[in-house]
Amino acid sequence: MIKPKTTKKETRQELESLVEEFIKAKGEIQQVDMGESGLVDGKYNTSHIGFSEPRQDRTPLNHVVAAIQHKKHPPSSSSAPKTNKTRPKKKVIYDDFGEPLRWVWEDE
Asked: What's one Pfam family here (predicted)?
């Protein structure tokens, strides 16, 4: 059986009721400055930031990128400009009462 999704309104009501229950049970809500919860001893926790190793040299791959771009968009072999060929259009032929009879192809 699939559970029905809860709406935003139901989620808000549930959170509000949980907060009210917490306060009624002599709970206390502390006000914390923005960003303070991410601080360790008043400083940002930098132990997880990966700048401890020296910077590594990167291998230039410009020729590989150029080869891929060349495959994607090969240069056109003809120097003549392309002409737009008009394609025939399908047109409906109706009878006297407005009912469709058949389709015909017309050149534009």
From this structure: SutA-RBD
Residue 24 carries which side chain, given as an amino acid letter? K
pLDDT in tens, 35-80: 667 666 767 666 666 666 777 888 889 999 999 999 998 777 666 6
Q: Are 18 and 11 in contact (CB under 8 A)?
A: no
Residue 1 lies in a domain: no
CA 106, chain centre distance (Å): 42
Bridge partners of residue 100, in order along the sequence: 94
How many folded domains does the chain comprise? 1
Say if strands 89-94 and 39-40 run parallel, antiparallel, or are unpaired: unpaired
Asked whether residue 96 is domain-assigned, the answer is yes
pTM score:
0.31
